[in-house]
Specification:
The complex is a heterodimer of chains A (about 280) and B (about 325). Chain A has eleven helices and ten strands. With about 280 residues, chain A is an alpha/beta fold. Chain B is of the alpha/beta class and about 325 residues long. Chain B contains twelve helices and twelve strands. Chain B has helices at about 45-50, 80-90, 95-100, 105-120, 125-135, 140-145, 155-165, 185-200, 215-220, 235-240, 245-255, 295-300, and strands at about 1-15, 15-30, 35, 60-70, 70-75, 90-95, 175, 205-210, 220-225, 230-235, 305, 315. Chain B has an eight-stranded mixed β-sheet with strand order 6-7-8-3-9-10-12-11, sandwiched between helices. In chain B, strands 2-1-4-5 form a four-stranded antiparallel β-sheet, with helices on one face. In chain B, α4 packs across α5, α5 (about 125-135) crosses α7 (about 155-165) and α7 (about 155-165) packs parallel to α8. The chains are: A alpha/beta (about 280), B alpha/beta (about 325).
């Protein structure tokens, strides 16, 4: 990692009760995240990869304090995020935003998109009327949504357009950090590239840092500066993207990389042999 | 063995019938894997449901075309005959394995029920067969696991159970519709490997449907690319990936993240996939195509022979400019 530190999280832990007895007391615990450290520089992209249940999303939400960690520290630009009271935390939300996998679920279906994108401007900056409208239209224009579409409701848009609208909403407060949780997993291949390129361009323009949570390793390889591989709640390997892909150190990282399908039928035989080797070590 | 000719399907919507698939032609041979690849709304799943005889009122109907299995016209079969055919001669697996299983019955019961219905086995023999099938699909301690309920299985294990049901009556054809899309990548690799093993062992013909070109490249012998309800290109897998003949195929290949290319931007296809009621005039891809001319907006191209530049045949493409374009495949 190079440059100024934006985010530093250390020793993050979270466990969930797995069952409860008659009195509602937990009978067991599942350790979803164990002792995770995350460091992120300004304008950097850190990808958090791993399979379902590895704890990726929990880490992303704990960093934003959408989930309270059981233990650990989170500092954003030196501010102790976990020590903030409700009001200060709300002010800090301006600097940290999140976009989710399902854009249909993250926008209010009864709100036209002008209001959806304008809401954070009102909440955080008290912006109203013509001033707010001008700013909203600028933001929408930046993500490729025209003025004539501003009065429409979410159901009138495709998934790719909605994800771009969600990005405009996140950008409205000019955050330093956006946690992107599988932002393109639900989109078609041809639309995926539009959203990824937009995130890339915005980073170049505004220096926003991303925590990019994904299971898609070929995408991660293209856009991340660094990668953290999670397995069963822990980071098992972390490193610069190129180094991690070329020379993975942890056996799980290797298994994960070997399992990515390759869109080249010439490599089929070699890939099948690798798959069989992986099957011998991988849990099923 | 399986021949689909000029298939066209309409779905009934609030605004009247809408054509969602047309001019679909393909054949599937014993032991072969034929891939249908395309984005959501391209007609892949509707095509497979039509093959299974599962499109009918009140949701839609097959308007034209024929589906033949070993020469027998499946469109002429009664609903009861079709039901007998599904499961016995054509097995199927879908994206959400746990949703396809009945949560109230053990997985052993569900396999046993299938073989009792189609093969007329006794209860005892059907149960024995169920355990045998679970073993075949690689489930440890099959006799014990047969007594477990679907919720006790992970997604990958549930898909193995679905495969056990699908192949339990030794079908000729397996239809696999996005069978690994909901699975983690390491589990996906295992399930794909299992499908290939079963195919070798049982001589299955597989109709493999996916939006993921990587998975298609690893599984399929021949591939058809679908866009807006039509096949736009059909070719042996190797040729399709190395030398696409339709601009949409080339654009999809280009949109695959490729770090080796050293570019940190992805090639995007502008615009969105048009919904079925708003397919453009002329070539349905022309508004998004980098190579479109005025003629492409006026004249609908037919799926025509498109020999590769090395002169090899057996390929088709639906593009007016197929003879003049040279498109890039995977490097």
């Amino acid at each position: 990692m190079s440059g100024d530190v934006l985010l530093e999280a250390t020793g993050l832990c979270k466990s969930y009760p797995t069952g409860r007895n008659l009195l509602g007391r937990p009978t067991g615990h599942h350790q979803a995240v164990k002792d995770v450290d995350i460091r992120l520089a300004k304008g950097e992209t850190l990808a958090v990869v791993g399979e379902s249940g590895a704890g990726k999303s929990t880490v992303g939400r704990m960093v934003l304090r959408l989930i309270e960690p059981d233990a650990g520290q989170v500092h954003l630009d030196g501010v102790d995020v976990l020590a903030l009271g409700r009001k200060d935390l709300r002010a800090l939300r301006k600097r940290m935003q999140m976009i989710f996998q399902d854009p249909f679920g993250s926008l209010d279906p009864r709100m036209v998109i002008e209001d959806a994108v304008g809401e954070p401007l009102t909440v955080h900056f008290g912006m109203q009327g013509a001033e707010r409208r001008r700013r909203v239209l600028e933001l929408l224009d930046r993500v490729g949504i025209g003025e004539h579409q501003a009065e429409r409701y979410p159901h009138e848009f495709s998934g790719g357009q909605l994800q771009r609208i969600a990005i405009a909403r996140a950008l409205a407060v000019e955050p330093d950090l956006i946690v992107c949780d599988e932002p393109v997993a639900a989109l078609d291949v041809s639309i995926r590239a539009q959203v990824i390129n937009l995130l890339h361009d915005l980073q170049q323009e505004r220096g926003v840092a991303y925590i990019f949570i994904s299971h898609d390793l070929s995408l991660v390889r293209l856009i991340a500066d660094r990668v953290a591989v999670m397995y069963k709640g822990e980071i098992v390997e972390e490193g610069d993207t190129a180094a991690l892909f070329e020379d993975p150190q942890h056996p799980y990282t290797r298994t994960l990389l070997d399992a990515i399908p390759v869109a080249d039928p010439r490599r089929r035989e070699e890939r099948r042999a690798a798959a069989r080797r992986a099957a011998e070590v991988a849990p099923s | 063995m399986l021949e689909v000719e000029d298939l066209a399907v309409e779905m009934f919507t609030q605004d009247g019938p809408v054509r969602v698939v047309d001019e679909v032609n393909f054949t599937l041979e014993r032991g072969e894997t034929f891939g249908l690849v395309g984005e959501s709304g391209s007609g892949k799943t509707v095509t497979s449901l039509a093959v299974l005889g599962m499109i009918g009122p009140p949701t839609g109907r097959v308007v034209e075309g024929s589906v033949r299995l070993d020469g027998r016209d499946l469109r002429a079969l009664s609903p009861a005959e079709l039901q007998q055919l599904r499961g016995k001669e054509i097995g199927m697996i879908f994206q959400e394995p746990r949703r396809s299983l009945d949560p109230a019955f053990t997985v052993g019961d569900q396999i046993a029920e299938t073989v009792r219905a189609h093969l007329g086995l006794s209860r005892r023999d059907a149960w024995r067969k169920a355990v045998e099938m679970l073993e075949l699909v690689g489930i440890d301690e099959p006799a014990r696991r047969a007594k477990a309920y679907p919720h006790e299985f992970s997604g990958g294990m549930a898909q193995r159970v679905m495969l056990a049901i699908a192949v339990s009556c030794s079908p000729k054809v397996l239809i696999a519709d996005e069978p690994t899309t909901a699975l983690d990548v390491t589990v996906q690799a295992q399930v794909l490997d299992l499908i290939r093993e079963l195919q070798d062992e049982l001589g299955l013909a597989v109709l493999f449907i996916s939006h993921d070109l990587g998975v298609i490249a690893e599984m399929c012998d021949r591939v058809a690319v679908m866009y807006a309800g039509q096949m736009v290109e059909q070719a042996p897998a190797l040729e399709l990936f190395l030398q696409p003949r339709h601009p949409y195929t080339a654009a999809l290949l280009e949109a695959i993240p490729n770090a080796a290319a050293g570019d940190d931007r992805l090639a995007a296809i502008p615009g969105v996939v048009p919904p079925a009621h708003a397919w453009p005039e002329g070539c349905r891809f022309h508004p998004r195509c980098a190579h479109a001319t005025e003629r492409c907006g006026a004249e609908a191209p037919a799926l025509a022979a498109a020999p590769a530049s090395n002169g090899e045949g057996g390929r088709t493409a639906r593009c007016l400019r197929v003879a003049e374009l040279t498109l890039e495949g995977v490097a």
